[in-house]
Design a protein that fits this description.
By secondary structure, this protein is mainly α. About 80% of the residues lie in helices and about 0% in strands.
């Protein structure tokens, strides 16, 4: 959607090829995340960053399976819309990653 790679492939085609792997990875992430949380519940409950990471994860998942998917499935989305959706998606997922990093270092 940002036209940085796979320029000959459409977003809809990439989405179709990666849909199953995305769902498998999501299931893996959810189960491993629950296992990690259960192993040190008391640490995560008092951590100030952890709830923010969970909100960012929820927002990223909802955005990915609604707005991002809808625009990716469009035949010819407007370039500005496509880039905006891609940038918002990247920002949400990067915030999840940094939330995970800061959860480990800030208590």
């Amino acid at each position: 959607m940002l036209n940085l790679g796979l320029r000959k492939e459409t977003a809809a085609r990439i989405l179709r090829y990666t849909e199953l792997w995305t769902l498998i990875a999501l299931i893996f992430v959810l189960f491993s995340g629950i296992a990690l949380f259960m192993s040190q519940t008391e640490i995560y409950l008092v951590n100030l960053i952890f709830p923010l990471k969970m909100y960012a994860l929820a927002a990223a998942l909802i955005y990915n399976f609604t707005v991002h998917r809808k625009v990716a499935k469009m035949e010819n989305p407007p370039p500005v819309l496509s880039k905006l959706v891609a940038i918002v998606s990247l920002l949400l997922w990067v915030s999840v990653v940094f939330g995970g990093i800061f959860t480990g270092f800030l208590v």
